[in-house]
Design a protein that fits this description.
Blueprint lengths: L5 E3 L1 H4 L3 E2 L2 E6 L2 E4 L11 H7 L5 H7 L12 E6 L6 H15 L9 H22 L3 H27 L6 H16 L3 H13 L27 E2 L4 E2 L4 H7 L2 H10 L2 H12 L8 H20 L4 H24 L16 H7 L3 E3 L5 H4 L5 H6 L8 H14 L6 E3 H21 L8 H6 L4
Parallel strand pairs: 1-5, 8-9
Antiparallel strand pairs: 2-3, 3-4, 4-5, 6-7
Length: 447
């Protein structure tokens, strides 16, 4: 006798998408993840953003195969009425399954070990230059090397947040704290919180924190209407101060990127001092204390304040290259307003992302961001395989007439500046800026 099933409509499912009531559909089965959202390793934000709809493609992208066995304990007993899968999603899931059979998600290569060795060498050279040389130019170059070290540690921190870069979870966690908190002064918990939200809601103006850089930058005139950030839970007021800064953003972009690290330090302190739940807060704080012990101490070993300032500026400016790289992949791509859609998850990832064309010998420079489309579709895939799977992704996009955008590093910079310039010129003509306390707005800047 056939098993009797209970069904709910899409309309009914959409009623369960608020804090305290989160339901999602995975392959047509309805799961109640309300309580799980408090312990979800990826944080509550991805579940909040995808609640009330089918989230199968996102689940496939972010979870290992073993995760499927844990779903049953969240099953409500309901199935989604008239559940169907688009041809794009079918092909995407087949491709993910094929990559899994090939073992690509488990083969990490030796990139992490090589990068760690490079970081040790750079750190030793930088410290040696400060402590054992008297030349001002050597001290400035040592600062630049420190900035380059931060770039490399950033790639490892990024990778370790997506997949296991080390042999087990404890060593992987150690690598995260070492490369993120201890060496770079950036809270890895803050990065995971914002980065997971970015991946889920790629290029959504009100849900993706990586596009919410007011008052310094806006990539779309839609920000002029003071939209609400659902990530930060506040309105992004486009006041006269913001309008002034945005009006010249295509000129200030690179100078601001040179000192963008200051914002990351600020976000780290804001998160760790907040009441927000931070997993392993003690480890995070300890790692940050390590950074704020060794870095100021190293700077203090320089002979005078002029050289100390130049060392800090050099280290910040060089690592600013990485901040520019983060922007190139998304600033000039398509944007939208509203929550991410599980049924068009693949399409949103490709529309909102730009690949960077480069030769294989330059992969070390881009840290995997040159294959940003592939990375967004398969975030658990080690970056050493991204070039290998690129032809398959491009073919899938071509088959379904979807965007697969790429540009050279130089062209991507031109496109980014063009996007900023276009928004800047429109901001100059905008006359309805909201008056606001300028000091308050500057202090409460996020992004």
């Amino acid at each position: 006798m056939a098993e009797s099933r209970s069904y709910i409509s899409q309309t009914e499912l959409e009623k369960h998408k608020k804090p305290g009531d989160l339901w999602i559909s995975i392959q047509g089965k309805i799961y109640d993840v309300t309580e799980w959202s408090q312990d979800h390793p990826g944080g509550a934000v991805p579940l909040l953003n995808l609640a009330g709809q089918d989230a199968t493609d996102a689940f496939v992208a972010f979870h290992q195969g073993v995760a499927w066995q844990y779903l049953d304990k969240f099953f409500t007993g309901y199935y989604l009425e008239d559940y169907s899968v688009s041809e794009v999603s079918k092909d995407y899931r087949k491709l993910a399954a094929e990559f899994s059979k090939m073992g690509l998600f488990d083969k990490k290569g030796h990139g992490t070990c090589i990068s760690l060795c490079l970081i040790v060498i750079l750190f030793c050279i930088s410290v040696y230059g400060v402590l054992c040389c008297n030349s001002t130019w050597v001290h400035i170059c040592s600062g630049g090397l420190m900035g380059f070290l931060w770039i490399q540690s950033g790639w490892i921190g990024h990778d370790s947040g997506h997949y296991m870069v080390m042999s087990n979870r404890k060593i992987n966690r150690f690598a995260q704290i070492l490369t993120g908190n201890c060496l770079a002064g950036i809270c890895i918990a803050w990065w995971k919180w914002t980065h997971n939200a970015h991946h889920i809601a790629c290029n959504s103006l009100d849900f993706d924190p990586d596009l919410q850089h007011m008052p310094f930058f806006t990539v779309s005139p839609k920000f002029f209407h003071s939209i609400t950030s659902y990530f930060y839970g506040r309105k992004l007021n486009f006041d006269s101060f913001t309008r002034f800064l945005v009006s010249y953003q295509h000129w200030t972009f690179y100078p601001v990127m040179c000192f963008a690290r200051i914002n990351l330090f600020a976000q780290t302190f804001l998160l760790l001092s907040s009441k927000r739940k931070v997993p392993n807060r003690g480890q995070e704080i300890l790692g940050i204390l390590v950074f704020w012990t060794w870095y100021p101490l190293l700077v203090s070993c320089l002979p005078n304040w002029g050289e100390r300032l130049m060392f800090v500026v050099a280290s910040f400016a060089v690592t600013g290259i990485q901040h520019v790289q983060f922007c190139l992949n998304h600033f000039s791509s398509s944007v939208y307003v509203g929550p991410p859609s599980g049924n068009s998850w693949f399409e949103k990832q490709t529309d909102g992302t730009l690949n960077i064309l480069c030769s294989s010998w330059m992969d070390w420079f881009h840290g995997g961001l040159q294959f940003q489309i592939e990375h967004h579709l398969f975030p658990r895939l080690p970056r050493c395989h991204l070039r290998k799977i690129s032809p398959f992704v491009k073919e899938l996009c071509k088959k379904h007439n979807l965007a697969y955008n790429s540009a050279s590093f130089w062209k991507a910079n031109v496109m980014t500046i063009g996007t900023l310039r276009s928004a800047a010129l429109q901001a100059r003509k905008f006359t309805n800026a909201v008056p606001k306390n300028l000091v308050w707005e500057a202090v409460n800047t996020h992004g």
